[in-house]
């Protein structure tokens, strides 16, 4: 999956940026969505499949925050993994 430079979620343009290190609540992370800045950060150097999965995970967080869904991290993880598997296993090409 090609990761775009921006995505639009619920009318908000979300910028995708890469960082060498992402720390949240004292822990190293693969990705992070910052709602106040509308930025998804992805860790540099991830393998392609991991990067796609993390990108989808952070997009789910963006949807969650924008719509105040209050999903658990477990639910966000599961949705990210399953959406990635659905796209890959069904050979769905996303531009």
Topology:
Blueprint: E1 6-9, E2 12-19, E3 23-24, E4 27-28, E5 31-34, E6 39-43, H1 48-66, H2 73-89
Parallel strand pairs: 2-6
Antiparallel strand pairs: 1-2, 3-4, 5-6
Helix pairs in contact: 1-2
Could you write a compact summary of the structure shown?
By secondary structure, this protein is an alpha+beta fold.
Report on this structure.
The longest helix has 19 residues, at 48-66. The protein has 95 residues and is of the alpha+beta class. The strands form two sheets. It has a four-stranded mixed β-sheet with strand order 1-2-6-5, covered by helices on one side. It has helices at 48-66, 73-89, and strands spanning 6-9, 12-19, 23-24, 27-28, 31-34, 39-43. The chain has two helices and six strands; from the N terminus they run ββββββαα. The protein has a single domain, classed as Zincin-like, CATH 3.30.2010. Helix 1 packs across helix 2 (73-89). The protein starts with 5 loop residues before the first strand and ends in a 6-residue tail after the last helix.
Terminal residue distance:
8 Å
Determine the CATH topology: Zincin-like
Number of helices: 2
Q: Round the Cα radius of gyration to an integer and report it.
A: 13 Å
Number of domains: 1
Q: Which bin fits the share of residues in helices?
A: 25-40%
Features:
26% strand; Zincin-like; four-stranded mixed beta sheet; 2 helices; 95 residues; alpha+beta
